[in-house]
Amino acid sequence: MRNNSGLTTIGFDADDTLWQNEQFFRMTEKHFAAMLADHGEAGHISARLLEAERRNLAVYGFGIKGFTLSMIETAIEVTQGHVPASVISAILDAGREMLSHPIEALPHAREAVEKLAGAFRLVLITKGDLFDQERKLAQSGLGDLFDAVEIVSDKNAATYARLFSRHGDGPARSMMVGNSLKSDVVPAIEAGGWGVHVPHELTWVLEHVEAPVAEPRFRLISDLGQLPGLVDSIMNPG
């Protein structure tokens, strides 16, 4: 690929961009609601769980361990402190199962990363639990294609400005690719870079914001198979 745009660095989100993630949270949430069926309808239990997750993000951060603790907290709340030890045990088992679930790559993920590797500096930028994200990256077989891996507590404009300066030539010459408008796309554009949205059907509700359609550096693709062509069009306009 010839590079006439100044683009030198491409960042990739991991969960629900390169591999499945949210579907396992949804499956576990349904199982959790079934455990507490005597204390409320599934929709009510899920709403209480979401409230706990929202409260706890600043304390536990993102990921399965925080989700598991929020399930335990919710179980205590909805049972008014009378949750059986067997339910707590089942919640812990569900969390452990999530932490050991095999990786399921999303369509075109490997091909897209392989096509862009070498021509650009590739940086995996993901948030969540360190051990879990390292496990998933190792299982994915994609680790060797990235020039750097950053597992962060949150993603905002300052995060991208710092990481794209550390691993590239600054955000203006960088692109971030991900399924979350809130975490991957909008803050990357705010930092001065390109933001490419690859929607996933199960993006977490706390990651929803409006698409920045008026921003000249915003792009939307249906899957990662379209990414190399998009990058080429940006590099060589007209």
From TrEMBL:
Origin superkingdom: Bacteria
Pfam hit, one: Hydrolase
InterPro entries referenced in this protein's UniProt entry, alphabetically: HAD-like_sf, HAD_sf, PGP-like_dom2, S-2-haloacid_dehalogenase
A GO MF term: hydrolase activity
Hydrolase keyword on record: yes
Gene3D superfamilies membership: HAD superfamily/HAD-like, Putative phosphatase, domain 2
Keywords: Hydrolase
Record-given protein name: HAD family hydrolase
